Every structure is written in structure tokens, then in C-alpha cells.
Amino acid sequence: MHMAWTRTVCGRLESRYQYSAGIVYNNFPWPQAETAKQRQAIEEAAQAVLNVRAKYPGSSLADLYDPLTMPSDLVKAHSRLDAAVDAAYSKKKFSCDSDRVAFLFELYQQILSPLESNARIVRRTKTSISQRN
User: Fold this and answer.
1) By C-alpha distance, which of 65, 26, 71 is closest to 52?
2) Of 21, 35, 91, 131, which is most buried with the most CB atoms under 10 A?
3) What is the Cα–Cα distance from 77 to 68, expressed in whole angstroms?
4) Domain ranges of the chain
5) How far apart are CA 15 and CA 86, in angstroms?
């Protein structure tokens, strides 16, 4: 989920992402109603990824995550982690990253809309006060 978001909202310098707290991280919509069971599933799946990576102490992250040579057990561990994270966001299955990003932007808009309403109220109040003076 986060990498789909990152690939969409991050700037780039050459082929590298320009990751920033203000644009990418702080605006990332986290799951709104994750359960303790979902959190536990994510934690266990994340630990499984770390456990698989530990099985390859002589390999760098670049070696482990080379798309052509990535160990199959690491691919499976990441697939389980992705499924656990997806389940924390929605009961529906996402078919691709563009579905995830569309869902994340909808969630972002839901989170933002009450803030926009409050901002309009504050602006109207300030305008009304300045017009009276």
C-alpha cells in the first residue's frame, strides 16, 4: 500500500524517489478501522519477512530484492504481508496498485473532508468579523 502511494505522490530525481515527510508520509492514509486481529496478522507477516531475510546472511538487500533473483520464500512472505495489509484497509481484494492508489485517494478525501468543512467555517467567521469592523 505504502509503496503504491509512494510511487504515485513522490517526486523523483532521475530514477530515485524524493521521499518527504511533508508530502508522502504525513499524507499517507493509514487504515481507519484496523482490528487487533488485523494488526497481529500484519505484525506476524512482517516478522516472517524478517525471518526469511535472516536466512540469507551473506546477501545484501540489493541481492535479496533483485527481481530476477529474489528468493521464492521471500516473494511468498511479502505476498502474505501485502495481503494482511490490504485486509486492514478493505474487505475487497485489490487487483493491482492502481486500485490501491484509487482506494487510498478516496480514503484521503474522506479524512480530509471534515477538515475542509472546518476551514470554510473559520474563513466565513473571520470574513464576517472583518466586515463588521
Assistant:
1) 71
2) 35
3) 17
4) 1-30, 34-94
5) 27
- Render pLDDT for 3-61 as a digit per residue (tens, 0 to 9): 999 999 998 888 888 888 988 999 999 988 789 999 999 999 999 999 999 999 999 99
Question: Any idea which residue has 478501522 for its cell?
Answer: 33
Q: From CA 46, how far away is CA 33, in angstroms rounded?
A: 19
Show the cell assigned to 86. 490490504
Question: For 8, what's the count of Cα atoms within 13 Å in the CB-facing half-sphere?
Answer: 17
Alpha-helix runs per DSSP H in the chain:
2-9, 36-54, 61-64, 72-89, 97-132
Q: What is the chain's length?
A: 133
